Amino acid sequence: MMVSDRRSAYSRITQVAVHLPDGRQSARAIEDRLREHSPGVRVPVGLLSRLYGLEERVVAADGDVPSGLACHAVSRVLAQACLEPGEVDLLMFAAVSADVQEPANAHIVAARTGLSCPVFDVSNACNSVLNALEVADAFIRAGRYRRILIACGETLSRLSRWSLTPTTLRTGLASLTGGDMGAALLVEASPRPGIIAQTFMANSAGWPAATLFNPHHAPSGPSGLHIDSEKLLASFLGIDTRAAQWLKEQHTDPNELGLICLHQPSVPFVRTFCERLSIQPDTVVPTFHRTGNMGAATLPLQLAHAADQGRLRPGTQVVLFGMASGASGGVMLISW
Fold it and tell me: 37 Cβ partners below 8 Å, 6+ apart?
């Protein structure tokens, strides 16, 4: 749908919604199960809390799939916006998780929610939603579409590696911190700037630090999710300083904004990131400790929590920090 309207030369996020399944798994329950399945590994009480700051994670029911969780959030966004499915011009599915590799998972979400617009998937690990926002902004500014939905469904708890050894514990433990949820964002053409500015960067030499090989196309790769936390953190060095420099070039002090949202793979990661960029921790909406790592849904989750807490109002200035294995980074300034 080609659109040309100079009065609507900008894009703006107008709605955000999340769907959190009812299931919860405490850090102690995770440790107990790990001891049961990995008898050769010593698992001290409180290990996940000390290393990652995890108290509990959100866990979907056995029958839930990424597209289903995303559909719940999409339906909620449409209801909030008082929109019919036919009023959406484009749907993107953006997540780490996926029901299928073919076709695009966005087709499944569209079919289940009654959308008839063009669809495709955006995939860049935990930066998938932020990159989808980048794409939506470009399309709307170019006049290609006026109303774009971004859907996300994560079932990261299913990547948990329960059978570990003393040798594989170091790269397997982080897999036990993933959580499950659905999220959706509505991006629309606007006469005033909503997505104001953005920059993206990568350190692709760091890709081996966190991997999930496809068993169909890379059968020689290690099975399951492998995360070397030290190497992963090191792969972001330089990305964080480039993000800080870009903010200076935008004459923006994050601490003077109304809200800061950043990817949260652990509580210590958030603390370290804030220290390196001189960000006051209380400006960030904490989520990891009670949900686990929500992958690409982390940023929408923080926006939704901030809205519920009254911290996200029309005109609120927000900075979104995306970090993903690879390593990828992104910074986006938005006005709500």
Answer: 162, 163
Annotated domain spans of the chain: 6-190, 195-335
The reported pTM is 0.96
User: 288-333, pLDDT tens digit by residue?
Assistant: 999 999 999 999 999 999 999 999 999 999 999 999 999 999 999 9
Q: Which two tokens stand for residue 184?
A: 């959706």
**Fold entry, domain 195-335:** Peroxisomal Thiolase; Chain A, domain 1 (3.40.47)
Architecture of the CATH domain 6-190: 3-Layer(aba) Sandwich (3.40)
CB 277 within 8 A of CB 335: no
Helices (H), 93-180: 105-113, 128-141, 169-172
